[in-house]
Amino acid sequence: MEVLSNCVGCGECVVFCPVDAITTYGIAIIDKDLCTDCGICAKYCQIDALKNI
User: Fold this and answer.
1) Would you say residue 2 has pLDDT above 90?
2) What would be an example GO MF term here (predicted)?
């Protein structure tokens, strides 16, 4: 997953990540070692700030 520049760090994606790979510090930060690229976070991002690469 990739965090795009329009991310506002709302934290909505954190709630839906099944492997707890996302934290927010002003923007979403994805732990690449934990992320499985399932895309669930992107599905629930209301501003399309996450992209499955």
Assistant:
1) yes
2) oxidoreductase activity
